[in-house]
Amino acid sequence: ELTDFPKDFLWGSASAAYQVEGAYQQDGKGKSVWDDFVKLPGKTFKGSNGEVAVDHYHRYKEDVALMAEQGLKTYRFSIAWSRILPEGRGEINQKGLDFYSNLIDELLRYGIEPMVTIYHWDLPQNLQDLYGGWESREIIKDFTDYAKILFDNFSDRMKYWVSINEQNVFIMHGYMLASHPPAVNDPKRMYAANHIVNLANASVTKLFKEGNYQGMIGPSFAYAPAYALDCLPENVIATENVNDSFAYFWMDIYRYGRYPKVAFRALEKAGIAPIIEEGDMALLAHSTPDFMGVNYYQSMTVAANPLDGVSMSGEANYSGEKGKTKEQGMPGMYKMVANPHLETTNWDWTIDPTGLRVCLRRISSRYDLPIIITENGLGDFDTLEENNEVHDENRIAYLNNHCLAVQEAISDGVEVLGYCTWSFTDLLSWLNGYQKRYGFVYIDRNEVEEKELTRYKKASFYWYQNVINSNGQT
Ligand code: BGP
Questions:
Q1: What is the distance between the alpha carbons of residues 124 and 137, in angstroms, rounded to a whole number?
Q2: What are phi and psi of 150, to 5 degrees?
Q3: 8 Å CB contact between 39 and 49
Q4: I want to staple 429 with a disulfide (CB 3.0 to 4.6 A). Which of 129, 167, 275, 436 is the partner?
């Protein structure tokens, strides 16, 4: 017997500023670190960028009307720091504040709950130039000041705040794999920067709580639960290494303000542990989030990796040609391998709805926090047919099975507050361009020259409309 979804369950959908807004230099917006990064040769699929994106900046009313038609209960979007503070600090850009204020009002007009991500990777370029961005402790104050502007301006109208999106992803890609800005490949710098992000996140969480703003705050964490290949004991140890260093290393900090011992010991042995200053651990221990946000796309399968085995690389399948992914891992620690039991997407991501149930169960048991699924979705090549229909049956099947897994987890006893699909409209995939589509709403990019970017509802749009209408009883 499955338990029903709670009556006020937040059926939602998510996006991020750089991936939808466009208008990248308009109305006083400052540069972000992505603006130049996408211009480096070979970094993104066919040099794709978010300069126009899907022009949500100008079309937000049209997009919100579509959300209302679908019946969304919440829309998760991010605020571009450099729209609010073009230099990342100092002078406020009123037009930037106005844009998000209008977007929030437009959502509320239709009864859609805004869920704001404070940081979704688009760091103001000036802070990178000034002091090296996340590598300097100066950013803790700047990030907190920026968040305070948002809380002071918007928090009387809304309830859900995501502090930082996928810290593990932007840190690993930015400082170890060199595949996100600032394109560094140095584990020691990575763990140092990561520690500073932890402090900045804690500082904002603390400010929110002590400032008595209404609502809830939590991070969005990218969690791909790890399974041991073939139940082989040596693979189980490798899997422990992965769970520690890909998941608990972040979530333990958020919830308990401490690094997992074994993972930290491994960093110390390798001489790459972050320097912890006086006061750091106290701040981390006193900034527990109200919920854990989780972005779930896939599970990983892990095997032992010899000392001369494969290493990590920023290379991956960014083209959508199935089977292009090479094995990666940390010599002596683990490697990620194919799961013989699971299908994959064209980008070689495993399709594993049960993995979502696993991930909800593990978070609930280890952290005892309510959970919001802040992202889940299927990237696919969709085709706009001659009658302007899009039959994205794969996406419907993917989402349907994942919703069922959420309901199973709720029946198990996990407290899940909401579920946001990635994404509402099609949008830019950071490294995979526009051909990897996630939306309920198709965006015709063949017209990009004329900036038409017409919106067409896909079959999944109507499917989710039914899910929401029936509170998950489809
Ligand atoms: C998450 C990000 C999103 C989004 C999504 C899909 O990691 O938070 O911003 O991009 O993944 O990933 P991709 O675009 O790589 O397919």
A1: 16
A2: -65, -45
A3: yes
A4: 436
Digit-coded pLDDT (tens) for 150-201: 999 999 999 999 999 999 999 999 999 999 999 999 999 999 999 999 999 9
Using the mean position of ligand 1's atoms as its centre, give its distance from the Cα of residue 377 in Å: 9
pLDDT at 451: 66
Report which secondary-structure segment, H or E, holds 74.
Answer: strand 74-78
What is the token pair recorded at 431?
Answer: 């490294």
**Ligand 1: centre distance to CA 307 (Å):** 31
Distance of alpha carbon 207 from alpha carbon 233, whole angstroms: 45
Using most ligand atoms within 8 A of CB, pick from 117, 296, 428, 429 the residue to mutate for ligand 1: 429
Tally the C-alpha atoms within 13 A of residue 359's C-alpha that lie toward its C-beta: 30
Taken in order 271, 273, 275, 277, the sign of the CA dihedral is negative
Show the beta-strand stretches assigned E in 127-173: 160-165
Q: Show Cβ contacts of residue 361 under 8 Å, excluding neighbours closer than 6 positions.
A: 409, 412, 414
Each residue's pLDDT tens digit, 70-93: 999 999 999 999 999 999 999 999
Assign residue 140 a region: left if phi > 0, alpha if psi is -120 to 50, beta otherwise? alpha
Q: Name the closest-CA residue to atom 6, ligand 1.
A: 429
- CA dist., res. 404 & res. 354, Å (int): 9
Whose alpha carbon is nearest atom 2 of ligand 1? Answer: 166
For residue 10, list its beta bridge partners.
418
Max CA separation in the chain (angstroms): 64
Question: ipTM for the complex?
Answer: 0.98
* Nearest-angstrom CA–CA distance, 42 and 169: 20
Q: Which residue has the tokens 């989402």?
A: 399
Residue-wise pLDDT for 382-438, tens only, equals 999 999 999 999 999 999 999 999 999 999 999 999 999 999 999 999 999 999 999
33: closest CA among 57, 50, 14? 50
